[in-house]
Amino acid sequence: MWPAFINAVKAKAPQATLVFDKFHIVRKLTEAIDTVRRQEITEKGKEHKKLVAGSRYIWLKNPWNLTDGQKASLSTLEKLNLTIHRAYLLKESFRDFWQSPTKEDAAKYLQQWYSWADESEIKPVQEVAKLIKRHEENILTYFDMAISNGIAEGLNNKAKVISHRVRIQNGKELYTQSVSLHGRSNHAIHFAQVCVRNHKTN
User: Does the pLDDT at position 97 exceed 80?
Assistant: First the structure.
């Protein structure tokens, strides 16, 4: 949704169908939720901070990835009428958009979701709603071409982790080996750590 990217695509590939990635929209929503959490702590002070201590990933994770302890904490927190909980519900309700059976149904659902976001008066969520609305046309194209860049973004994040781990002499070579290995195995980060340890002991 970066204007420079949109302009480049239109200029260089005017025939292309532009589909804004689901991964990035979900990330915008989770960033908004975390902003709400921090703002509410700032506004309500130390007692509230104690109340929601350790809850950050409860609000950010997919519900099916919550541990039993996190599920129990969420069950308690959702009874307290917190702003973060209302924002969380808006984030989760947006999942239904992706499950819309048709593009027309998806468009109708967006209108409903915009209304919920506006009525919530939760500014970070409203800002995301405005962003989605500005780019609605190329978000709805997902229903013409259901593609996602999530896997590539996941690999990119892992590459960033490796790059932070491999900050030694010959680190560039080790980084390249680690990233290359990750295409065939889940042990790339461990590989990088072993290389670092071996290098330090030599």
Answer: yes
Do 122 and 36 form a contact (C-beta atoms < 8 A)? yes
Collapsing DSSP states into helix, strand and coil, what is residue 17? coil
Alpha helix ranges (H) inside the chain? 3-12, 22-44, 46-51, 56-60, 68-77, 83-93, 95-98, 103-120, 123-134, 136-140, 150-165, 171-182, 188-201
Residues 179, 188: Cα–Cα separation, whole Å: 7
Q: What's the N-to-C CA distance of the chain in angstroms?
A: 47
pLDDT of residue 94: 95
71 token code pair: 């599920």
Question: Which tokens go with 51?
Answer: 């109340």
Q: 139: which 2 tokens?
A: 């978000």
Residues 122-172 pLDDT 10s: 999 999 999 999 999 889 988 887 655 554 455 555 555 555 555 544 555
What does the DSSP assignment read for 83-126?
Answer: HHHHHHHHHHHTHHHHT-SSHHHHHHHHHHHHHHHHHHT-HHHH
| SS3 at position 71 | helix
Q: State the pLDDT at residue 138.
A: 86
Asked if the model's pLDDT at residue 202 lies above 90, the reply is no
CA distance 21 to 139: 8
Q: What angle do CA 42, 115, 77 make, to 5 degrees?
A: 40
As given in the structure block, the two tokens for residue 170 are 């010959």
Integer Cα distance of 190 and 196 in angstroms: 10
